[in-house]
Amino acid sequence: MARLGILCDLSHVGPRTCADVIAFAPEGKPPCFSHVLPAGLLEHKRNKSDEFIRAIGAKGGFVGLSQFGPHMRGGNESTIDDYVEALDYVIGLIGEDLVGVGSDSSEGHERPSEFLKWCNMDKGYARTLTPWGAQKVVKPLGPLAEREKLAEAMARAGWSEEKMRKVLGENWLAYLEKIFGE
């Protein structure tokens, strides 16, 4: 896939597939995790191990961090500052040039809904990945219209303007250029 210019996103695959795709990725066409959280902060089946995050980084790939509260260290009590902490954690593993926002946003859907219940099933039909029902699912970044609050949280954490620009979008653009550019 990578040789054909198709982005290989490993966010929803298991450990064996992650290992195989990372190992066989051609030079200059690395895979990514478009929307994951680090298992180093919270062990969960959907979160990716530090080992896999480092392996993606070693290939020059990209890691976008999901904003899904139940998979963050604070669960549904997670805040936007916890999200920035998770970004810093992954930056500590692979550097600030390979990390960005991977919101996995599902705006416009009531909670709970049949669609989101389906999304919460592994592969859409198998095991339930998080508790469901009337549970409020916190997404600490809030709706897309409120994303400026993320930059404010990054500034509170002492981030430089350059680091903020990279993580807020420039890193995504650089990664996509590797995959789709000439």
From TrEMBL:
The UniProt family comment states: Belongs to the metallo-dependent hydrolases superfamily. Peptidase M19 family.
Q: Which reaction does it catalyse?
A: an L-aminoacyl-L-amino acid + H2O = 2 an L-alpha-amino acid
> Has UniProt tagged this entry with the keyword Hydrolase?
yes
Protein name from the UniProt record: Dipeptidase
Checking PROSITE patterns in the record gives:
RENAL_DIPEPTIDASE_2
Q: What is the lineage of its organism?
A: Eukaryota, Fungi, Dikarya, Ascomycota, Pezizomycotina
Per UniProt, the enzyme's principal EC class comes to: hydrolase
Cofactor(s) the protein needs? Zn(2+)
GO molecular function terms attached to this record = metal ion binding; metallodipeptidase activity
The record's annotation in InterPro entries points to: Metal_Hydrolase, Pept_M19
Look up the domain of life of the source.
Eukaryota
What EC number(s) is this enzyme filed under? Answer: 3.4.13.19
